[in-house]
Design a protein that fits this description.
Blueprint: E1 3-8, H1 11-25, E2 34-39, E3 45-49, E4 52-58, E5 61-64, H2 66-72, E6 78-81, H3 86-90, E7 95-96, E8 100-103, E9 112-117, E10 123-129, E11 142-149, H4 153-156
Parallel strand pairs: 6-9
Antiparallel strand pairs: 1-2, 2-3, 3-4, 4-5, 6-8, 7-11, 9-10, 10-11
Length: 159
């Protein structure tokens, strides 16, 4: 991944992003510096918080990266999967109903969500909900489309 451009965010942009992340996923970004990075050939822009790639813009919506979520401990928009789903989700597979052990019932269809494993609560992926949170657990069907996961180019990004 090559950096196309980088620029520091203005204080009003930082405030808006921090407020949206606090409201949506319950994280508190408390950084000194915020830089938006445009990545060549990517649909995503990253925000480096104190040099760490903690936020990704997906369809102009700021959301924690996998690394950012694990660094800032979100408490909303979480979908928890069992041990049997870990290897699939970590490889970028969409999340299927049988692997889900818990889902935030406030999640609406189309929301971005964080997919975490049940044992340690570590986030494995960011995805888009294909159904609402209350409908996620069950016997069959795809319920979260993978957007970003452990081991992808975005996860491996460093400056």
């Amino acid at each position: 991944m090559r950096v196309k451009s980088r620029h520091h965010l203005r204080s009003d942009e930082v405030r808006a992003m921090v407020d949206r992340l606090g409201d949506r996923v319950g994280v508190d970004l408390d950084g000194e510096t915020y830089e938006r990075v445009d990545i060549e050939g990517s649909a995503f822009d990253l925000v480096l918080v104190d040099g760490d790639p903690d936020v990704v813009y997906v369809d102009d919506e700021p959301f924690p990266t996998v690394r950012g979520a694990n660094r800032h401990d979100p408490d909303r928009r979480l979908v928890t999967v069992d041990a049997g789903a870990i290897s699939f989700v970590s490889d970028g597979a969409d999340v299927m109903r049988p692997g889900i052990v818990d889902a935030d019932e406030a999640v609406a269809e189309g929301d971005l969500v964080l997919v975490a494993e049940e044992t340690h609560g570590k986030v494995l992926a960011v995805g888009r909900a294909l159904v609402d949170g209350a409908s996620m657990p069950g016997d069959a069907g795809r319920v979260v489309e993978s957007v970003h996961h452990v081991g992808d180019d975005l996860y491996a990004f460093s400056v």
